[in-house]
Design a protein that fits this description.
443 residues; alpha/beta; elongated; Rossmann fold; 11 helices; Immunoglobulin-like; six-stranded mixed β-sheet
């Protein structure tokens, strides 16, 4: 809805005024030029009036509207479209100032375009939210200038709207087909090697050259008087839980996105992949207590339930209570499940404090601890030290990086699998680990 139609003097008008003032000053030195300067003043006034009449003659010179998606995908580039109808019979220049949500902290947003006479244009720009929640848009302002460029007419549209930002659902489409086909090696991930056989029987079929002789069904062979083999398939309907640590160790930001939001985005994707693989997907988050629980199920509404639950994961980033996590998992999850624990350990001491609880969970479930490389240290490690302080910083950074690798070895010592990854590769590495576990029949 259009609210106001004020006009604004443009820089070109003030430049013309400054030039006329300079000419007036010079006319004291060259009196013959005084008459010319007066003519220039009259010309400026006439052009300003003409520009005003041209822009304000049409009641609805320009009509614009903002087209927003139903929801934003956190951490991704989300497109916003502005559709503008130009009802002027001449070309105009426009400046669009959209009042975008305050979370982006953008104070100089503007888009400049030229519109053809009596035309419709669609302009797209993109926003990348880095936190979940509600994003409120304000008014849409369009400033129109003619070929003279002396004044601008403002059209304001009260296009106030709210768009919720959900965990990165755009990644679902990105990794969906790749995960189903196990075709992740094009992203730099190693290929999955099948080991052994799973125990879920599918059918008995005729033997063909190349079938494993160990799968021959001798009873069926005797009945049919020809070689028959058992065919197996990957075990299905196995519970897969994404456990998200929402304590203070997950507040560390990378590329403006916290580790917690990286974990939430990866949990959404791995849950979708698990359901596509006919497994049961569930989630839970913990800090001082275990919350945001979705029991692992395989139903059509499961993804929507997981998405809404992840959207509502809130935290004050307190110290996480692993003893509470162990007690709740032991009491409520009775079937052996794959537990993908998203957390972060910076030191061995930090791991040792929680190791008894991790070992307790690993006794009943297949536990995979997923924690993060500090990618900010790479620059310090690779940079050549030129001062004593830089050399000291480099040694400390290498110590922290080495301690991360020691944490991996410590977990392996107790039979706990782990993933040490960068935040950017978290989703890919998690999917690949899940596919590896399924292929090897570890669960």
């Amino acid at each position: 809805m259009k609210r106001t139609k004020p006009f604004y003097l443009q820089n070109r008008f003030f430049y013309a005024c400054i030039a006329i003032i300079v000419l007036f000053v010079l006319s004291f030195i060259f009196p013959r030029g005084f008459a010319i300067v007066k003519l220039l003043v009259l010309l400026l006034v006439a052009l300003t009036l003409l520009d005003t009449i041209v822009l304000f003659a049409a009641k609805n010179g320009v009509i614009g509207r903002r087209v927003l998606p139903e929801k934003f995908s956190n951490g991704d580039e989300n497109p916003i479209h502005i559709i503008i109808n130009n009802y002027y019979t001449f070309n105009v220049n426009i400046t669009i100032i959209d009042e975008i949500p305050e979370q982006f902290q953008v104070r100089d947003f503007n888009i400049k375009r030229q519109l053809e006479a009596s035309s419709t244009s669609e302009i797209e720009y993109r926003l990348r939210p880095v936190e979940r929640g509600e994003y409120h848009f304000g008014k849409l302002n369009i400033y129109v200038t003619s070929v003279f460029g002396l004044i601008a007419r403002r059209f304001t549209y009260n296009d106030k709207a709210m768009v919720p930002t959900y965990p990165s659902f755009m990644q679902l489409r990105k990794y969906d087909l790749l995960a189903i086909s196990n075709n992740l090696h094009q992203y730099g991930i190693k290929k999955i090697r099948k080991i052994g056989h799973t125990m879920e029987f599918e059918q008995i079929k005729d033997y063909v050259l190349g079938d494993d002789l160990r799968t021959i069904n001798w009873k069926a062979t005797a009945k049919r008087n020809q070689l028959m083999v058992n065919q197996f398939q990957d075990e299905k309907s196995q519970p897969i839980y994404s456990i998200i640590d929402k304590g203070r160790v997950m507040k560390m930001p990378f590329d403006r996105l916290t580790l917690l939001d990286y974990a939430i985005n990866a949990s959404l994707v791995i849950s979708n992949v698990a359901l596509k693989k006919q497994d049961k997907a569930g989630i839970l988050a913990f800090s001082k207590k275990v919350e945001n629980i979705v029991v692992a199920e395989k139903r059509t509404s499961q993804m929507n339930l997981i998405l809404e639950t992840l959207y509502n994961v809130n935290t004050d980033f307190f110290e996480s209570d692993y003893s509470r996590l162990y007690a709740d998992v032991k009491r409520n999850i009775t079937h052996r499940s794959l537990m993908l624990l998203y957390t972060n350990f910076e030191t061995l001491d930090g791991l040792h404090r929680q190791l008894p609880y991790l070992k307790g969970i690993a006794k009943s479930h297949l536990l995979v601890v997923i924690f993060f490389k500090n990618t900010e240290l790479n620059h310090i490690i690779t940079e050549k030290a030129e001062t004593v302080q830089q050399a000291y910083d480099k040694v400390i950074a290498e110590k922290f990086a080495f301690e991360k690798r020691l944490i991996v070895n410590e977990l392996q010592k107790y039979g706990i699998q782990s993933i040490l990854t960068s935040p950017q590769n978290l989703t890919i590495d998690t999917i690949n680990k899940y596919l590896e576990i399924k292929a090897r029949g570890l669960l």
